[in-house]
Specification:
Blueprint: H1 11-24, H2 33-44, E1 58-62, H3 64-70, H4 75-83, H5 98-118, E2 123-127, E3 135-140, H6 141-151, E4 154-155, H7 160-165, H8 170-177, E5 182-186, E6 205-208, E7 212-216, E8 226-227, H9 233-249, E9 272-274, E10 284-286, E11 290-294, E12 300-304, E13 330-331
Parallel strand pairs: 1-2
Antiparallel strand pairs: 2-3, 3-5, 4-5, 6-7, 7-8, 8-13, 9-10, 11-12
Length: 332
């Protein structure tokens, strides 16, 4: 990671830019020095295993709570907190405030490009609010399909009409269909708790007067017994991903399907990303180590990423260097 000390924000600049934001009904396409400083601070102050939950996950947390830890007494963040007073939608917990939705989308728009262009895997991006849920898990598509079968949600694919429009080759279409490219899992079903009824038969349920319905884990896990529901999506996603990676490390789930495909062991960084709207025929582009973003005024924002080195004793199974700091809670 960059050896950057988080810079204190000028109150005058924050107030000036915040007022411009409100006056101009700004969108995620507009650039503000204050927001870029917050963006840079989140990315450069975190890495794999550094969150409170640990695990083989890089948690990039753009929630108001985390931004306030990095930038206390920030009037812009305080103003966004008040936007929650306008309420939330009961179906998915998303904010009703248009201001707060635009603020959250500003970070999501840029971090989605950063993760994709750099080819990062096993990244959880947390934003303040979004209609599809405020959590995204980035990684290899076919691996995310397995995670989706456990927690619900939607793994993003490019639909066939777009692939025809942008001249995808036969092989490229196959790669996309089978999930052989980095993408993301989005889910508004993860804003309540896990395990829930998704993916679990009722025969696996055991009711607790204290914790409600508890479930036996049906996916491969070293944990046995009935698991107490977790209410923090980034925690249970980390635990599920860790379980599945350990499953691959121990040689389970390596049998190919009828088409000859197996679920790969997740990588920390991929060599290529998918550029779906490039009509020149180079849809799979090489990734980089530097995120470079051209602002509307012609200047550039640049962030260099340095991934942690893996101790040779872990070999190819890099997840073992980042054990969970918290584990499944089992009903006694």
């Amino acid at each position: 990671m960059e050896e950057n000390k988080i810079k204190a924000l000028s109150q005058d600049n924050v107030l000036r830019e915040m007022n411009l934001w409100y006056e101009n009904q700004c969108s995620m396409l507009d650039d503000y020095d204050t927001l870029w400083e917050m963006f840079r601070a989140v990315v450069t102050s975190s890495s794999y295993g550094t969150s409170e939950f640990g695990g083989p996950i890089w948690l990039m947390d753009f929630s108001l709570a985390n931004l306030q830890k990095l930038f206390p007494d920030n009037p812009w963040l305080e103003a966004m907190e008040k936007e929650w007073d306008k309420g939330k939608w009961s179906i998915n917990g998303a904010a009703k405030s248009e201001e707060l939705k635009r603020f959250s989308a500003w970070f999501q728009y840029r971090i989605e490009h950063l993760v994709r262009w750099l080819g990062l895997g096993n990244v959880i991006v947390k934003q303040e609010t979004d209609f599809e849920g405020n959590i995204s898990l980035y990684g290899w598509g076919i691996f995310l399909d397995v995670v989706q079968s456990i927690v619900g949600g939607r793994v993003e694919r490019i639909h066939h009409e777009l692939m025809l429009k942008y001249n995808f080759s036969y092989n490229e279409v196959g790669e996309v269909i089978h999930g052989n490219f980095p993408t993301r899992l989005k889910s508004d079903s993860m804003f309540k708790k896990f395990p829930c009824n998704y993916g679990h038969g009722f025969s696996y349920c055991k009711h607790s007067n204290l914790y409600g319905d508890c479930y036996q884990l049906k996916h491969f896990s070293l944990t046995t017994g009935y698991v107490i529901p977790e209410t923090v999506p980034e925690k249970f996603l980390m635990l599920v991903v860790n379980d599945l990676m350990e499953c691959k490390a121990q040689g389970y789930g390596n049998k190919a399907d009828k088409d000859g495909y197996t679920v790969p062991y997740p990588q920390m960084k991929f060599a290529q990303y998918l550029e779906c709207k490039n009509a020149c025929g180079h849809h799979f582009q090489p990734t980089t180590d530097v995120f470079r973003w051209k602002r509307k005024d012609g200047s550039y924002e640049e962030i260099k990423i340095e991934l942690p080195e893996i101790d040779v004793k872990y070999g190819e199974f890099w997840h073992r260097q980042f054990p969970p700091k918290q584990n499944w809670r089992v009903l006694e």
